[in-house]
Design brief:
244 residues; six-stranded parallel sheet; 10 helices; 15% strand; globular
């Protein structure tokens, strides 16, 4: 397959193994970055990252820190330690949405979220809006909701009056721009962005990799990389999630 050369970037970072570099795949990181730029997230703003343990979520946590925003992660508590190490200010339990706003206030000092990067959707979306609008006097910008996933469900019940009365801005995101890709590669070259590689599978075991991903457990964080069999010993074995 031949593609234009300007669609490639050279990353001379000897600290990264090929599998780790693959885990920095532009699909996740560019989507994450475009979620932030679409919502015009600025340094110092409080940002909720939902679905924080996945590829886009872990990218968002890192990118918030790079641009100076403060990421609050929504995930399972078993992943809290890893997400805090990655850069999350605090980790809120997604399995218990009761009194979500109160629990968030305890972490933000009573301040509302400036923006939400939503990869979950479903019934949770209304809670996320609550977390941005409960004190409009404390805001200097509009509440912003960037959406790039619906792992919690494709349908959300939202009162439209809350959207227009509180001037909630909603952005749908599926990828990003070439300029954003260039910025991401610059951060990868400098080592500012770190790979979150959960593990690797052989290409011949692609179905097993898919099954593993669908049934992933509470220890899952980041990305799975699939390595061609001919390159397995060199590039896949050190990160193997399967036995020979």
């Amino acid at each position: 397959m031949a593609v234009p050369s300007d669609q490639f970037y050279h990353v001379p970072n000897s600290d990264l193994a090929d599998a780790e570099l693959a885990a920095l795949g532009m699909c996740s990181y560019q989507t994450a970055y475009h979620m932030l730029t679409s919502a015009n997230v600025q340094a110092g703003e409080r940002v909720l990252v939902t679905g924080a343990s996945g590829g886009v979520g872990t990218a968002l946590v890192q990118l918030c820190r790079i641009i100076g925003a403060i990421p609050y992660a929504l995930s399972q508590q078993e992943k809290a330690k890893s997400l805090l190490k990655l850069g999350a200010e605090a980790v809120l339990d997604r399995t218990d949405m009761n009194r979500f706003v109160d629990r968030l206030k305890a972490e933000t000092g009573g301040k509302p979220l400036d923006a939400v990067m939503d990869l979950v959707g479903g019934a949770m979306t209304d809670h996320f809006i609550d977390a941005m609008i409960f004190d409009m006097n404390a805001r200097s910008t509009y509440p912003r909701l960037s959406i790039a996933g619906a792992s919690g469900g494709n349908i959300s019940e939202i009162l439209w009056t809350r959207i227009y009365l509180y001037q909630v801005q909603i952005f749908g995101v599926s990828h990003g721009t070439r300029e954003e890709a260039g910025q991401l590669v610059s951060w990868i070259r400098r080592g500012d962005l770190k790979p979150v590689l959960h593990g690797a599978f052989r290409l011949s075991n692609l179905h097993r990799a898919e099954t593993y991903f669908v049934n992933r457990g509470s220890d899952y964080l980041g990305k799975i990389v699939v390595v061609p069999d001919a390159q397995w010993q060199q590039h896949g074995q050190p990160f193997a999630l399967e036995t020979d």
